[in-house]
Known about the structure:
Elements: E1 5-8, H1 18-33, E2 37-42, H2 52-64, E3 71-75, H3 80-93, E4 96-99, H4 103-115, E5 139-142, E6 149-154, E7 158-163, E8 171-173, H5 181-191, E9 196-200, H6 207-217, E10 223-227, E11 230-231, H7 247-252, H8 257-266, H9 279-285, E12 296-297, H10 300-313, H11 316-331, H12 339-348, H13 355-366, H14 378-384, H15 390-401, H16 410-423, H17 429-441, H18 449-456, H19 458-478
Parallel strand pairs: 1-2, 2-3, 9-10, 11-12
Antiparallel strand pairs: 4-5, 5-8, 6-7
Amino acid sequence: MPKVRTRFAPSxxxxxHLGSARTAxxxxxxxxxxxxxxxxxxxxxxxxxxxxxxxxxxxxxxEWLGLDWDEGPHRQTDQAHRHTEVIDQLLASGAAYRCACTxxxxxxxxxATVARGEKWTYDGRCRDAGHGPECGEHTVRLRLPPEGxxxxxxxxxxxSGQDASEIGDKIIRRxxxxxxxxxxxxxxxxxxxxxxxxxxxxxxPNTPFQIAIYRALDIAPPIFAHVPLIVGPGGKKxxxxxxxxxxxxxxxxxxxxDGMRNWLVRIGWSSGDEEIxxxxxxxxxFDLDHVGRSSAQADPDKLAWVNHQHIKTLDMEALxxxxxPFLAELLGHGIARGPRLERVVDLMRDRGKTLVELAEQxxxxxREEVDLAAESAQKAVKKHLKPSALPLVEALTAxxxxxxxxxxxxxxxxxxxxxxxxENGDLKLGKLAQxxxxxxxxxxxxxxxxxxxALIGRASCLERLxxxxxxxxxxAASA
Length: 479
Ligand code: GLU
């Protein structure tokens, strides 16, 4: 078998879509698995709709997902001379011909055909007219055989194809001289030595005509693998409005590239009942024989779960690298790296399925100020900073004030809490811990109280307890 060469060939007319990202991933994984090359080709021949901004976004998305390419990005418009050359060659061999039918004429004939209840394909009026370059405004069409299967053995769908009679002589060059998609994609795949074309099943209707171009050029087509489309939960078509479909959006929502890649690869592909795959494991295990034929569902709950598995096991350094921007955004300032941050992240990584959630959890321990008057704190304040808890919190605060920096650690804090509980008729720890937790974090949930106080630090804790006491006294006075 010759060296595998795959390509991802996006049109730069929008953002990197979930479906395209998975197509890129499958091409990349297939090439890597077989020790081949993965080529990036930007199909920018639609000049009106192609933008550099979109191209940049596509490239950033691929880079973020860790899908590195061996060649490219090639730009299809850079190959325009080759497209012209091949069209000229097809004209010279008689495999293509000039068509002088105007848009309006075509429209009229099409309408009449459809009115008779028949399917329209080009009726071949100019096929044998022998128009030369001087025939005026014209397009170029590929001459298809009148009948015969334009078929291929799809790596996913098996024997596939359509009869030439159902397709008709399609245009390969517009009247302005621009080559059309079917022609450009075939020429570029030939020139780039692509061995496997892995693309969405929405391209299945395009393949027979492209096979006809290969035949006209007397070149063996690559192997085709059409991947079933991704659908939303319940099997519904994905909708840009309803469903998150832009890779950059998932990224902004705090999914890890590792989680995203893992989730994407599993939409439509399986390897036994394994769910969690690192980048290397994907390369090791991915092949097309376990890509299913039915449309695959994108399940957001599954993404959250898969992502969480990666958050739980990611190397600390790498996790902090990715978490940092989310944390800085939430806190409004950067945060020093070091053992304290690592401890906080380690305590919290079980509680955040995304980087956004993880940052929110870490912020509980890392924020510089707690505002008990904030709307978000009200429920916990009402419930736990009750006037009845005042004597307890007062006693504890007095004792904690006497605990010096050197003893402000889990063991030291535990002793103080236990003493206060013992002095108050063997009070349950929770009765004491909960008001303290709300006082120092502004909310009712945090890791163990000793760990929480140790990580927030002595000065901040005492200051926050002071503010909470003030608030409790005010509540007691106005009760
Ligand atoms: N540029 C085409 C697209 O974005 C892909 C062409 C192909 O994969 O053959 O849909």
